[in-house]
């Protein structure tokens, strides 16, 4: 099935099974804003827990924080966001649609890449096991032609972005014959800068109101609390502060479902280090964060690092972790070496001394920062994209049907156990409720006694529930149940007294965390 088709199905599935709903749907929605449904919120909470436990609990020198969304507006002046948190905008004069100039060019680069991959895939199928991909990429004329086009465009684009040369960005769009996807024409306006921060007023006008911003990243809340945490926690460098929270960006191009939203959640960790050691820590965090993703078992080949073409105003090194979504490799997480930029700026703008006395070096300095920043919503999409499967299975009547199953890692699955009496009568419902009432203290469980057992299994497959516990008349005789495993669909009989132990073994976050620290 084409990947675009898979993605469309995934989006529809998210709505049908209570993972993600378009915001304000009964009022026709609000662009690039989404709500998480009854199953989505559970998956999101499980992801937060995996991140929090692995960053805060497993690292003695990392602590948490929960700073507010509203902050003093001078913070955003100091951080550079008021002056420099911009995207390059371009409009098509025929369709009146607005685009990000950099995204249009990156899409063109991705098209050249896709053409190369298609040639490789075709040849791979033709030559089978004898196929040497490296040699093919180095010798095939069509691949080489697209490689040359990619290299030339990439070089030009990198330079234009680094120089903030907007005339050149427009020229690239014209030279590459990039058309508006809506009008199909090449009538473009000049490229302009557009600030991404949302603002509002705080206080009543009679008091004199103040313009405040909705934070575009959670990181600044950490920087302005650096002294509070360092002093009250008696933290010694190197140490980190982790935070999960909402961020807001007035994105021009809202695309790809929850990939690019106007309100989203970040999980960020700012790691404070001695000057001169930041690049060493940058490498360590890069490796740890990649391992964190790979630990979920979605396949190493589906991740890659992308080194930034243009460094942000605060960074001396930056890399993205990209995941292969159905719409291609895209950024899920950024790792940035932010130097002492943020703390120095806050020192300058607030007039408060922000420094650290290092007892080992016997000197004071402004700490350097290495940041790991992951979008929770993108991580959510990574999990769902990796988990969505369609499988042909046999029906009870000997036919074939397609089952949709979300193979979400059991630790992250929204619902862990479904308790299902075969029928409601003869005391089976009561026994089922008894089992449910016992398990609910340990796991998020559901009780379901409606429809045929086959239909109930399909419902649970679609949610990604790893275990279905079925009760039948034998249960009333010998206190045993049937466990049906989501991925293999195998069934086995176990005593009721073993359910908790069996489920705990598979869904405890300890399993993931231990594997991560090996
Ligand atoms: N504090 C650094 C920072 O904010 P960023 O690369 O702009 O860096 C970090 O953002 C992560 O936040 C991204 O890797 C992405 O996962 C997520 N993110 C950024 N903008 C987003 C958006 N509009 N919608 C959803 N997630 C977004």
What's the structural blueprint in terms of helices and strands?
Layout: H1 3-16, E1 20-22, E2 34-36, H2 40-57, E3 62-65, H3 74-78, H4 81-84, E4 86-91, E5 98-100, H5 101-127, H6 133-139, H7 141-162, H8 166-175, E6 192-195, E7 199-202, E8 210-213, H9 219-223, H10 226-232, E9 239-248, E10 263-273, H11 278-294, E11 303-307, E12 317-325, E13 328-339, H12 341-350, E14 356-358, E15 363-365, E16 368-375, H13 376-387, E17 388-394, E18 400-406, E19 417-421, H14 428-439, E20 445-447, H15 453-463, E21 467-471, H16 473-478, E22 480-485, E23 491-495, H17 499-507, H18 509-516
Parallel strand pairs: 3-9, 19-20, 19-21
Antiparallel strand pairs: 1-2, 4-5, 4-6, 7-8, 9-10, 10-16, 11-12, 12-13, 13-16, 14-15, 17-18, 21-22, 22-23
Helix pairs in contact: 2-13, 2-18, 5-7, 5-8, 7-8
This protein binds glycyl-adenosine-5'-phosphate.
The site of glycyl-adenosine-5'-phosphate has 19 residues, from β10, β13, β16 and α13.
| Counted beta strands | 23
- Gross CATH architecture of the largest domain: 2-Layer Sandwich
Percentage of residues assigned to helices: 25-40%
Q: Structural class, from helix and strand content?
A: alpha+beta
**Strand-residue fraction?**
25-35%
Outline the low-pLDDT stretches: none
> Which molecules are bound in this entry?
glycyl-adenosine-5'-phosphate
Radius of gyration, whole Å: 26 Å
Outline type:
globular
CATH topology of the largest domain: BirA Bifunctional Protein, domain 2
What is the terminal-to-terminal distance?
Answer: 37 Å
Overall CATH class of the largest domain: Alpha Beta
Strand line-up across the major sheet: 3-9-10-16-13-12-11
Sheet with the most strands? 7 strands, mixed
Mean pLDDT: 94
Fourth CATH level, the homologous superfamily of the largest domain: Bira Bifunctional Protein, Domain 2
- The DSSP helix count reads 18
Provide the domain count: 3
């Amino acid at each position: 099935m084409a990947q675009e088709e898979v993605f469309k199905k995934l989006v529809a599935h998210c709505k049908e099974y209570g993972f993600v709903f378009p915001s304000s749907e009964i009022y026709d929605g609000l662009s690039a804003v989404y709500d998480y449904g009854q199953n989505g919120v559970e998956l999101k909470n499980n992801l937060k827990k995996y991140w929090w436990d692995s960053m805060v609990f497993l690292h003695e020198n990392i602590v948490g924080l929960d700073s507010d969304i509203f902050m003093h507006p001078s913070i955003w002046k100091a951080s550079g966001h008021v002056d420099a948190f911009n995207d390059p905008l371009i409009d098509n004069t025929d369709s009146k649609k607005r685009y990000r100039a950099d995204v249009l060019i990156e899409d063109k680069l991705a098209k050249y890449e896709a053409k190369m991959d298609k040639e490789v895939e075709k040849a791979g199928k033709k030559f089978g096991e004898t196929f040497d991909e490296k040699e093919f990429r180095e010798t095939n004329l069509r691949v080489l032609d697209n490689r040359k086009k990619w290299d030339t465009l990439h070089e030009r684009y990198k330079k234009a972005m680094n120089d903030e040369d907007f005339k050149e960005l427009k020229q690239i769009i014209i030279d590459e014959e990039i058309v508006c996807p809506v009008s199909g024409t090449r009538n473009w306006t000049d490229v302009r800068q557009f600030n991404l921060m949302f603002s509002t007023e705080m206080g009543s006008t009679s008091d004199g109101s103040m313009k405040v911003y909705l934070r575009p990243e959670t990181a600044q809340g950490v920087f302005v609390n650096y002294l509070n945490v360092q002093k009250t926690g008696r933290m010694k460098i190197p140490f980190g502060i982790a935070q999960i929270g909402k961020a807001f960006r007035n994105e021009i191009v809202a695309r790809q479902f929850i990939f690019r939203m106007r309100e989203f959640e970040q999980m960020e960790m700012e790691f404070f280090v001695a000057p001169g050691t930041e690049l060493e820590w940058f490498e360590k965090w890069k490796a740890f964060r990649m391992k964190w993703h790979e630990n979920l078992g979605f396949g190493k080949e589906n991740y890659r690092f992308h080194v930034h073409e243009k460094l942000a105003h605060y960074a001396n090194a930056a890399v993205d972790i990209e995941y292969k979504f159905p719409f291609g490799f895209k950024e899920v997480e950024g790792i940035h070496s932010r130097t002492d930029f943020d703390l120095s700026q806050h020192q300058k703008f607030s007039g408060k001394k922000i420094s650290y006395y290092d007892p080992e070096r016997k000197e004071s300095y402004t700490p350097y920062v290495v940041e790991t920043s992951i979008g929770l919503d993108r991580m959510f999409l990574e999990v769902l994209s990796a988990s969505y499967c369609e499988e042909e299975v046999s029906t009870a009547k000997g036919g074939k049907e397609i089952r949709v199953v979300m193979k979400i890692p059991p630790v992250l699955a929204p619902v862990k156990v479904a308790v299902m009496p075969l029928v409601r009568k003869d005391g089976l419902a009561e026994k089922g409720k008894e089992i449910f009432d016992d398990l609910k203290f340990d796991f998020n469980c559901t009780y379901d006694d409606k429809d045929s057992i086959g239909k109930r299994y399909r419902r649970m497959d679609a949610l990604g529930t790893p275990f279905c516990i079925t009760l039948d008349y034998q249960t009333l005789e010998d206190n045993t149940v049937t466990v049906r495993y989501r991925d293999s669909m195998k069934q086995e009989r176990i005593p009721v007294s073993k359910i908790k132990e069996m489920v705990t073994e598979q869904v405890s976050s300890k399993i993931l965390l231990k594997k991560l620290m090996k």
